[in-house]
Every structure is written in C-alpha cells, then in structure tokens.
C-alpha cells in the first residue's frame, strides 16, 4: 500500500508533492520518491526510509519545475530500497510513473517485455507499467493508457508524466483510491483527501476504470473508452487541525483520550428510549435468512462482537468471516442475505472486494465506516458512520471502540426490526448512553496499566485468555500489543488452553486474563489457576463480584451490562499495549511493517 | 488394533503369553484372554479391561499347559466385554483362535454359517474365523487354513490351536504384523517384537499370505499354496523399550510412521464407488436445519476441516465451535440440529458436556472417536470410529489424520444423503482411496523437513500462514510445534497478516506458509513476499504448479484433490514439529503441562 501525489501548475510542484506525501505517510513509509518534469529531462529523486530522508536529499538543490509526481511506499513486492522506490522511469527517461496497488500478472508481462529487450531495474510489480507505456506510447498518452490498463490485472492508482507534455499529468484508477482537486492555476491529485486539503476543499473522487488529464487549472475526467465525463466536485468539511497531536506525545495517546468524546459523537441522535437509526427502517428482517459480518484486522474483532450479540438476540444464522477468506470462500449469499462490512478507512481492499461480490449477488449491504465518501461507503446500500474523526496512529483505538458502540446499536436495531424482545433492554440502553462516562472513568486507570505493562519489559511473549465475549476483547488486546510493542502476543479461548497452548507457559510468563462475563468467570478463574500452577504472572481484568485470592494483579471494570463490558476492558488493554511499547522505546504511531489502511490484498 | 501371542514348548506356555501381552498392551487394553491346550480340553480365560484383570483371574489356579494363545484387544467391532474378548472357540471346544485385524466380509460369512446352524456368541468379526475353520477342518489344519483365508477379505494375523495337536500352533498373516521366534525347546509368535525379545533376539517377520507351523523348538514357514519356504531369522539389536517403539526413538515418530496403515484401516470397507456408511443411512437430511461441529484442540481443527467441506457441499448453515465455548454459548440447538462431536479418547470433558446438552435438546448426534465404548461413543446416537489404534504420544498425529480421513467420508455421505451433487466426486473418491499411498510418499520427505526444522534452532517464534483449507493445516501445524517444542508458534490467515501480525516479522523470523489451494495460491504468494521483504525466512509447502522464484525453501505435495491436500501437508508439519523438538532436546512424547486426554474443564 502506498500513497501517491501529483501536481501541475503555474508554480513549483515540489511543495505540494512533499506536503501531500507527508499527509499520506500513514499509508506507508518504506521509501519515498518524486519525479519533476524539466525541459532538459525528467528529474527523479528517491530515498529509502521515511520521508525525511527524501527531503534531505531534495534540500541540496532548488527545484522549480511546475509539474511532478510523488510516492511514499509500503513494500509489497521487493524489499524497501532505492531501486524499488517509485517513481519508475522508462529507458530514455521520457516517461515517469507512480503506482499504488498490486499488479497480479506482472511476471508474465515482465517476461513479454524482456523479450522485447526491456531492462528492469527493480523487483517491483509497478515497473512493468512504465515499460508497457513506453512500448505503446506513440504521442497519444490516453491511447497508451487505455491499452496498458486493459492488460493489467489487479489494482492501480496511477500518475504519469511525459517529457512531451511537461504540463500534463495523466491519471488512471482501479480499486485503489485517487482524489483530484484544482485551483485557478493548478491541478493535483493524491491517494487521500488530507494531501489536498491545504489547497482546496472541493474534491473529485475518481471512480474505477476512469482516467483523468490534469493541466494547470483544469481537470478532465474520461471513462474507460476515453470519452469525456462531466464530474462535479464535492465540498469536504474537513478540519485539518484535527490531525494534530493536541499536546500528546503520540497520536495513539491522543486518540485513546478522545474516546469518551468520539463515542458520544457516534451515539449523538442515535439513542432515546430506543435506537434511532432511520437508515435501517426499511430493512425487511423477515426476508433475511442469513447475516454475514465481513471485515479485516481490528474491524474483524468489532464484527465478532456484533456476531456475538446477533447470536444472542436474533434467530437468523450469523457468521463473521475475515474479508480475505470470505471473498474466496463459497458462501451462499443471495437476496435474502444481510451483509455487514466494517472498515475504518472504507478503503480496505479485501472488504471492498467482498462488498462488491455481495452486491452482485443482490445481498442487502450495510457498511460501518469512519471516512465519508470512502469507496466502501459509496457502494454499500447503507452506510452508518462512526464519528471517530481522523485516526492517525496505525494501531486503531478510537475507531475500534466507536465501531463497538455503533455495532451494539445496530444489533439492537436489527433485533427491534425482527420483533425480538431483548432481555434487560432498558438496562442495556441505559448503559450504552452512559458509555462516554464509563470510558472517561477508565482513562483514570492508566497508572495501574502502566505498572502492569512494565512486567513485559524483559518479556518476549504474552498470552491473553478469555471466554465468550471476553474472547473478542483478548483478540483485540493481543493484536494491539503485537502491533506496537512487537511482543509476541496471542489470544486463546481459556477453555482451549489445556489442549495445547498451556505448554508454552513457564515461570514468569505474562498472562492477561479477562473475566468480565460473570456466568463463565469461575471457569476462566480455574484456567487461570492452572497457568499460575505453571509459574504464570497473571493480570486479571474482571467484573465486580468475580473473585480469586490466588491472582496477585487484579483490576476491576465498573458495573456495566456484560454485553458492553468489552468497551471498558478494551480501554485497559489499549493502555497496556501503549505503555508496553513506550517502555520498549517503540514508535507507537508508526509501527514497523504496518500501514494505516490496507488497500491491497 | 489388537495384540496376540502364542507359545508351544517343553515348559508352561502361560508365562510367555502373559509377558507378551503386557508388552503389547500399547496396542489395546479393552479386554484380554488366553486359551491353553490341555488334553482334557482347551481352557479359555478372558477378562474385560486391562491385563491386570486377566492376571487376577489366572492367579486363582496353576496352569502348566505347554501350548496356548493370548490376545489383548482394542475394540473395533462390538463393545469391550467378556463375550467379545478373544480367544474365540468352536462349539465343541476343540479349536481356539486369536485374531488381529478386520474381516471386512464377516457379515456375509456369518449369514452363511448361521444357515449351517452355527451359533455366534459375540459381535466380533473375528468369531467367523473359528467357525469357518471348524466347518472346513477334517484333520488337516493347513488345508483348512488355506480354504478359510481364501474367503477372508480384510486383514488378519491369526493363531490357531486344536485339541488334535496340542503341541502345535498354526499361524497365518495378511496385512497385520506377525513375528516368530524360537528357542531349543519352544517356538512362539506375537504381533510385535517386544513380546519376544526376552526369549530370543532372532526373529522371523512373517510375510503377507504366508502361514507357519510352530512346534517346540521348530518353525516351519509355508507359502500361500502350503509349500515350504526357507526363511533365515534376523538378529534384532534393540533393547526392550526401543522395541516397544518398534525401533523408533519416540512414540510420536512411530505414530507418524503408522499413518499410511491406520488411514487404510479407517477407510477399510468404507469406500467403493461411493461412501459406505450404513450407520448414517437413516439420517433424514431434509429435517436438518443446522449443523454444529463441536470439539477441542486438535479434534477442533479436524472439525474446522469438516466445516469447510460442509460449507462447500451442503446448503445447511454449519458452525464449528470449541466445545468449551459451545457449552456456555446460546446456540439454538433443537431436533432439527445435527451435532457432530470429534474426540480421540471419547472422554474429553467439554465435548462430553456439550454432547449431553445437545442430546437433552433432542438434536441428532454423531460422534467420531478412536476408542470404542468411550463415554462419548456410548451417548451419541451414532459413533463412527477412526481406526488409529492406541495413540501414546501426547501430541496427536495419527488420530488427527484418521479424523480428517473419516470426516471427509462423513461429509461426502451427508452430501449424498442431502442429494447434493459433489463437483469432481470421482476424482475425490479416487484420491481418498489413494490416501495411504500418498501419505506413505510423504514419509520419505522427512530429511527435508528435518533440515527446515533446524532453522528454528535459535528461534523462539514461528508464524504459520495460509488461506481457506490451508488455514486449518497451519492451525494444526502451529499447535503441534508449540505443544512439543515450546516454540511460540501461531497461525494466521495469510490475508490478515497485514492487519497487524506482520509487525512481528523481522530479519530471520521463520514463516511457514501453505499454498496447496491453487485458486488462492497467488494471493498467499503475495503475502509471503511481503514477509520476505521484511526479512522473513520462509518455508513454503505448496501444490504442484504453484510458483515463486523468491522463496528459498519450497516443498511440494503430490497431486491430490485440493480438499484432501490437508493430509499430506499435515504429515510435513508433523515432521517439522517433531524435528524441531528433537533438535531442542524436548521430551517429544510427554511435553510439559499437557495430558493425553483432557477429562476436566
């Protein structure tokens, strides 16, 4: 997954390209590069590592060229290196491209081009594109792009410059995002809105199979055949300030602290004496024979939570499947299926592909997204938004808890539509409303979690265990820890420990156990005691009234309906991961190998 | 699987028979029995349960007879009981036999014998042999044996005594082991070397279709036609414990090596041009609205495999849930539910509790067990048996692959009952039949896996990745590794890697990737390349035709239907875990913290 930018105008292009790449660094930071179009030839500069390295390189000279393209890379093919960095250029340095996406059939194209005497300098899939363009280009770049994109299998957002037309940027897109914008004197594009927002608040989201021609002050969108398409820009009410750290050392800390507020925002006008969700009022639950929950990573854990509630309340079979498995699996989706997609960015490639497949089969589709006008939200029948605001830290915190909150409301709404009477409905609704205060009170427990996190200082491993809904929380707790602190953390069903994983427990091993679900708490306590017998150092997160003398470290969540206990428990687990990472000196916001939004398979 | 012994000499036979049975108890311990040839008649003593019970019975008197046969039983047909115990005798108590193996066509032989007025006392397949011998015996036992064995379909190792020749033991063998030995004053035989080793170290392993005549101090081997065969004994250099492990250093190695045989036994009389599973013929699939697969640990992985096949073939919602979660979950089980329980021991506490709960709700219940008359098999409506024989090593190997084999047959049978046409049915059936040979060929790849396992020597972690059915295999591969080598191994959906776990990959991290499912192999290869870009040391287990230049260590499984690829892949992963544990000096058979059968929550 990468981020790309492009600019053409009556002023120097580099400032836009660099500020844009900076805003897009959340999409990857293995290497970065730019091409600037100069009448003397195309100037290309690249650097391995973070954007800072490229900036240093570029600071050595003055670059006043008025058109260019830029790229920040998250390696998918080939190691992060200078040669594998974008932009890629053709042999006589007359065409330069940046690409975001994956070309699946690059090997066969590469072999074909090699037979035509093309020489490859990188291990990337992207390099085939520039040589293929070179092969087909005869002075008409749109003609060449049409030809080339017809050969490409996979996904791409593509920006192309040529020496023949130094003031023109050519753009093409399929399954990777591309946002266009312009001023009176310039036109530009990038992979995401924040890269454009300092220049314009009116944006065009290019659609799949479309192309565009950018010239100073002008944008022309074309369809697959090259016919002009009339597109109106939309206004984005985006607040750039929101992306600042607001006094916190890291974005993750800021985002953890924002949770009471963003949960409140997410619940705003959603809840009175019942759930207000007019978007779903027309959903005929009696026609629904199966529910599928589809998502990736943290959003998949949120979906597991929703699945649990659904199984408690609805008599419809409900299945939660990782999107990467779902899209290649044989699920009997049809017009009687309700498919629910959860994605913070709304751009997650596997989730998006699964959504498209379900639409084709005429399923009812609901999306839960955090980003307005994202690809997933544009395609789903209905999108319900978490109001978490921009999440910059790669490890999701506020997006996850707002997903849990919104999904609890959605499942209650589905139960109401299915005319199911939910046990303890009033208590549940009361506790949902009180979530912002409950979460606020959890933030005060940070010192305690910081102390517990110090247990991991010398540890390489951690094991999370829980039953029923606690299993969802331990999955997320373990993911958070491994994402940012590189502690090898894993989550197990407490009852499955004895069937193998307990072999890993030795003197001093840290076990994080959850017992917030009172009806199975005593079973989990038994499992915990078995790990203590093998020397485990156990931290227990528990509901009031759950008791064990043998566990040295215990922390209690406030009284709350057990179906909502995931939320306060998750705050503790976020703090645990955060402080473990900080103690170990890890980069909390930009963990190695990870990108914020996974827009490739 | 059973164990048999026989002795004829100038000294009492009983001491040899009993010490031999003791050494063979690993082959089964449901019941035991002996026949001793006395001029007054054949004396037969049996006892249900372990050998100790028989010894107590025999201690009541002194038995000085100089010829006899003995048996320790692992029930396959008929519950463990006195009547079903061996030896079996004819009506006038002049012939007694012990049998190890399975007679596939015993039903039709039994019907024929019943028409000849023969009365049967047991539910065993073995009893037909003694009556058939009685029918054909006219004073020449070799002639009778030739006739009888020509009728038997299946496997047998057979010892026969007659009152007519009190000092002679007749032996016949096909596909079940039979080891012969002698001293100057005695001759004897047994199912395995350990039973002989205290008496001689020179042994003869009888070959298929051969017969033998034992007299004190003499052994005569005959071919199928009754012609004498000249056989030279071989010297066995190993000690007793090693002998019990059949020359293998550990039980796990022995059990891995047994897989071709036990899979063959499991498939015996189950498969012709369709699946033979009369136990399920009365199951009304049209009444089934939901299927639940319930199990723990390794058996849970086998159930995930069955779930996958079920989703491909059946249009009924199917869910696989760990037993510890199922029993406390809110699953709408009723008389329209089919619940399938998998447990090697048949005693797993959580699985048993879940079974009882499902029975109470009037669900249809099927068990897959390896131990006859176990608690689960007694309670389930129907039990289908894996014929893995006793599994001694705590980490399951042959029990798992026989579960996979039997579950594949069960799911095919359910598809047939549901009148579903299975795509590529003939190919699938062909490949199921060929599993024993396929697995045999995998055993030859041990050296390669041993080399790969050495990569873990300095490693604390390992990551297993795969998609679709490969995900089941990586779950089991990771469990095996952590169970016996204490390497912190975990399995991830390949497509989920980028959503967090890839943060754990660093220079030299060992990643075991599976790509046996061709339709998603290229996606997995992309994910693998992402880990390589971060320094991972990848071992790829792949199907023929799957290709990547970038992966240094690749091993190919034979051409096989993708739905069966789990089986050969699992053999490799077993070997990988085994050799990793051996290199690290771990106790392979009895890993720390684990027990063979988990009979508590």
From TrEMBL, chains A, B:
Coarse class of the primary localization is cytoplasm
**Domain SIS, first and last residues per copy:** 280-420, 452-591
> Which GO terms label this protein's molecular function in UniProt?
carbohydrate derivative binding; glutamine-fructose-6-phosphate transaminase (isomerizing) activity
- Known EC number: 2.6.1.16
Protein name (record): Glutamine--fructose-6-phosphate aminotransferase [isomerizing]
What are the record keywords, sorted? Answer: Aminotransferase, Cytoplasm, Glutamine amidotransferase, Repeat, Transferase
Concerning PANTHER family, the annotation shows:
GLUCOSAMINE--FRUCTOSE-6-PHOSPHATE AMINOTRANSFERASE, ISOMERIZING, GLUTAMINE--FRUCTOSE-6-PHOSPHATE TRANSAMINASE (ISOMERIZING)
Keyword Repeat assigned: yes
Where would I find the Glutamine amidotransferase type-2 domain in this sequence?
2-225
Name the chemical reaction catalysed here: D-fructose 6-phosphate + L-glutamine = D-glucosamine 6-phosphate + L-glutamate
A Pfam family this chain is assigned to: GATase_6
EC supergroup of this enzyme: transferase
Q: What GO CC terms are in its UniProt record?
A: cytosol
Q: Which InterPro entries match?
A: GATase_2_dom, GFAT, GFAT_N, GlmS/AgaS_SIS, GlmS/FrlB_SIS, Ntn_hydrolases_N, SIS_dom, SIS_dom_sf
**Organism of provenance:** Dubosiella newyorkensis
């Amino acid at each position: 997954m990468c981020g790309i930018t492009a600019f053409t105008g009556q002023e120097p292009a580099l400032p836009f390209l660099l500020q844009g790449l900076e805003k897009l660094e959340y999409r990857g930071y293995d290497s970065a590069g730019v091409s600037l179009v100069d009448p003397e030839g195309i100037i290309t500069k690249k650097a391995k590592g973070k954007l800072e390295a490229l900036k240093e390189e570029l600071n050595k000279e003055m670059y006043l060229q008025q058109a260019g393209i830029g790229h920040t890379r998250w390696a998918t093919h080939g190691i992060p290196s200078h040669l594998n960095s974008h932009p890629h250029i053709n042999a006589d340095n007359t065409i330069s491209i940046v690409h975001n996406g994956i070309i699946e059939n690059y090997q066969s194209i590469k072999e074909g081009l090699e037979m035509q005497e093309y020489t490859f300098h990188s291990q990337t899939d992207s390099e085939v594109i520039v040589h293929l363009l070179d092969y087909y280009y005869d002075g008409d770049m749109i003609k060449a792009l049409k030809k080339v994109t017809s050969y490409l299998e996979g996904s791409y957002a593509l920006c192309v410059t040529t020496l023949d037309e130094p003031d023109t940027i050519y753009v093409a897109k399929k399954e990777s995002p591309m946002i266009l914008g312009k001023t009176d004197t310039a036109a530009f594009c990038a992979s995401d809105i924040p890269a454009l927002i300092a220049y314009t608040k009116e944006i065009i989201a290019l659609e799949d199979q479309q192309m565009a021609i950018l010239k100073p002050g002008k944008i022309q969108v074309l369809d697959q055949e090259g016919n002009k398409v009339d597109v109106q820009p939309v206004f984005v009410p985006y607040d750039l300030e929101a992306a600042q750290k607001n006094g916190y050392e890291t974005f993750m800390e800021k985002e953890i602290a924002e949770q009471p507020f963003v949960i409140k925002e997410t619940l705003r006008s959603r809840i009175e004496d019942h759930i207000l969700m007019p978007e779903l009022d027309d959903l005929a639950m009696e026609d629904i024979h199966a529910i599928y929950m589809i998502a990736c990573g943290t959003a998949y854990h949120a979906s597991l939570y929703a699945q649990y509630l659904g199984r408690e309340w609805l008599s419809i079979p409900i299945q939660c499947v990782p999107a990467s498995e779902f899209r290649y699996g044989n699920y009997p989706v049809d017009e009687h299926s309700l498919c629910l997609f959860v994605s913070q960015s709304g751009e997650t490639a596997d989730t998006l592909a699964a959504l498209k497949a379900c639409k084709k089969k005429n399923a009812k589709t609901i999306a839960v997204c955090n980003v307005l006008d994202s690809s997933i939200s544009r395609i789903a029948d209905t999108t319900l938004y978490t109001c978490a605001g921009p999440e910059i830290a790669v490890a999701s915190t506020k997006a996850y808890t707002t997903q849990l909150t919104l999904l609890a409301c959605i499942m209650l709404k589905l139960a109401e539509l299915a005319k199911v009477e939910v046990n303890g409905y009033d208590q549940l609704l009361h506790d949902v409303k009180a979530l912002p205060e409950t979460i606020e009170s959890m933030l005060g427990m940070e010192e305690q979690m910081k102390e517990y996190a110090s247990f991991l200082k010398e540890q390489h491993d951690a094991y999370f265990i829980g039953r029923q809904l606690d299993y969802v929380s331990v999955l997320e707790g373990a993911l958070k820890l491994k994402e940012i602190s590189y502690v090898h953390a894993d989550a197990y069903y407490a009852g499955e420990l004895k069937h193998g994983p307990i072999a890993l427990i030795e003197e001093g091993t840290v076990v994080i156990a959850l017992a917030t679900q009172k009806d199975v708490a005593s079973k989990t306590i038994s499992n915990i005691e078995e790990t203590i017998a093998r020397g485990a150092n156990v931290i227990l997160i528990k509901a009031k009234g759950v008791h064990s003398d043998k566990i040295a470290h215990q922390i209690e969540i406030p009284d709350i309906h057990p179906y909502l206990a995931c939320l306060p428990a998750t705050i503790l687990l976020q703090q645990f991961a955060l402080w473990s990472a900080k103690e170990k000196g890890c980069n909390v916001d930009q963990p190695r190998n990870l990108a914020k939004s996974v827009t490739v398979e």
